[in-house]
């Protein structure tokens, strides 16, 4: 079983230098800050950022058909390098094997719900920068239930999948915004 390392300044030992990270997945509950982390990490490492929401959602919040979605993911993962944010559990089997680094934002559900509510007001009536145009920010009961139940319904499966990754794949589990800041600072310093 693979060791999974939460971020700890005293035990963070990357398998290889950060500039060799070429295919980075960022996963976690809605509202955890996946897209924000992806953008910031993309700037530091000079890697293209792929926001899966922008590829999945069509104007008017219309979902992409399942077979078409699988093809889109297969095309995206063929790129030489990327930072890819988004859960989309039905595509983890395609994405996890090709990622050299996985960052799991394992945040409290209360923080995630608060952030989603803030995001709803910040982008009221307009689309976020990390989603397709024509998808104005929304908040509904179903999404709130998804976030609230994430630690129970999704987290165990994700941790199991992460523990089964190959020994040459790095996994970082970040539990709060402070750990994200420390992670970004360490990557930035290592990048020089």
Question: Which short descriptors sum up this protein?
Answer:
single chain, 192 residues, two-stranded antiparallel ribbon, globular
Q: How would you summarize this macromolecular structure in one to three sentences?
A:
This protein is 44% helix and 15% strand.
Write a structural description.
The protein is α/β, with parallel strands linked by helices and 192 residues long. The protein has 8 helices and 8 strands. It has helices at residues 34-45, 52-56, 66-77, 92-95, 109-122, 141-153, 155-163, 177-191; strands at 5-6, 23-28, 49-51, 57-58, 62-63, 82-85, 101-105, 170-174. The strands form 2 sheets. Strands 1-8-7-2-6-3 form a 6-stranded parallel beta sheet. Helix 1 (34-45) runs parallel beside helix 8. The longest helix has 15 residues, at 177-191. The model is unreliable at 6-13 (pLDDT under 50).
